[in-house]
Amino acid sequence: MRWAFASVVLVPRGTWGTLPTSGERRRVLQWVSRAGFSGIELSPRWFDFHCMTSQQLRELRGEAADSGLRVSGLNLSRCILTRTAQASEHLERLRRSVAVAETLGAEVINVSLSMPTPPGPGRLPLLGEDVPDTEHQRSAELVAALAQHAGQAGVTLSVELHDDGLLDSPELCLQFLERVGVPNVGVNPDLGNLCRGSTLSSDWKAALMLLARRTVCWHIKNYRDGKPVPVWDGDIDYHWAFAIMHGVGYDGWVSIESYRGDLESQEHDLEYLKRLDAISAVPTGC
Predict the structure, then answer these.
(1) Count of other CB atoms within 10 angstroms of residue 275
(2) d(CA 41, CA 248)
(3) What share of the chain is helix, strand, coil (3-state, %, to 5)?
(4) 23-35 in b/e burial notation, b at 16+ Cβ within 10 A?
C-alpha cells in the first residue's frame, strides 16, 4: 500500500486555516517525507488550492517532488450539493478540483457528501436514510457528470463513508455508486467515521466487508469511547481490516487522518500501520 499524510489534521476539525506561506509548506512537506510517508493528501482547509493559479500549483507539485513526495489526492470534506444556498459554490469547488488534481498529478479526489447540521446544542445530524430519494438521485447525477470530466483527466473520484449526511452507511454508499454508474467512481471506507460521536456504530466489520472491493482510497483513524486514540488502541481492529483489504487486492493510497493534535502521533501511527501491512500481506500458512 502507499502511505499519505492527510493535511486536514493540520487544522482543528471542522475549521478552515489560514493559507500557509511557502516556507511553512516546505517545512510540512519535509517533515512528511522524513516521517516515512510517500504522499500528501491536500485539504483546502489547510491549503486552499482552489484559489491558486496553474503556475502556483505546478510550483507546489515541484516542492512536493523535491521532498520525495507525490500529491496523492485532494480531500473535500462536507460538500453539500443540494438544499443549501452554498450548493452551487460547493459544486463549483468540486469542478475546479478536477483541473487542480490534473495539474498536481493527484490520482484521487475524495469527497464527503454531507447534509446541513441542524442548529442548536445536542441536535443530531440528518441521517442519510432521512434524505429524500430525489436528493440522493440529484447528487448522484452531479457526481456522475463530474466523474466523466475527471476521467478524461485520468482522475478517480471517491465518495466517503461519512457520519453526517448523505452516505452514512455502507448500503447507501453502494446504492449511490450504482446510481452514478461511472467506472472511475469508488468509495473511501473511513471506518473511523462510524466510531465517533453520536452515530457510534459497532458494525464497522460489516461495513468494510461490503465496501472493500469498491475502495479507491482509504482514510485511517481510530476512536475509543468517541475520542481519538492511536490506531492500535481503538474500537477498530486494523489487523483484521488490513487482512480484508489485502484479500481483495487493495494496493492504493492509505491516508492517516488521526485527530490527536500533533505530528508525532501521525508518525507513530504510520510506523505501526507499515508493520501491520507487512504482516497482513503474508498469506496464511507462510
Answers:
(1) 11
(2) 23
(3) 45, 15, 35
(4) eebeebbebbbeb
Strand, helix or coil for residue 218:
strand
Q: Give tens-digit pLDDT for 38-64.
A: 999 999 999 999 999 999 999 999 999
> What is the SS3 assignment for the chain?
CEEEEEHHHHCCCCCCCCCCCHHHHHHHHHHHHHHCCCEEEECCCCCCHHHCCHHHHHHHHHHHHHCCCEEEEEEEEEECCCCCCCHHHHHHHHHHHHHHHHHHCCCEEEEEEECCCCCCCCCCCCCHHHCCHHHHHHHHHHHHHHHHHHHHCCCEEEEECCCCECCCCHHHHHHHHHHHCCCCEEEECCHHHHCCHHHCCCCHHHHHHHHHHHECCEEECEEECCEEECCCCCCCCHHHHHHHHHHCCCCCEEEECCCCCCHHHHHHHHHHHHHHHHHHCCCCCC
As a whole number of angstroms, the distance between CA 271 and CA 280 comes to 14
Domains observed in the chain? 2-118+125-280 (3.20.20.150)
pLDDT tens per residue across span 195-220: 886 555 568 999 999 999 999 999 99
What distance in Å separates the CA atoms of residue 97 and residue 43, rounded to the nearest whole number? 11
pTM listed for this prediction: 0.94
Q: Are strands 222-224 and 227-229 parallel, antiparallel or unpaired?
A: antiparallel
Instruction: Collapse the DSSP code of 125 into the 3-class scheme (helix H, G, I; strand E, B; otherwise coil) and give the result.
Output: coil
Mean pLDDT check: name the lowest of 49-53, 120-124, 132-136, 204-208: 120-124
Q: Beta 70-79 vs 222-224: how paired, if at all?
A: unpaired
SS3 sequence, 127-149? CHHHCCHHHHHHHHHHHHHHHHH
User: For residues 127 and 150, what is the distance between their CA atoms, to the nearest angstrom?
Assistant: 29
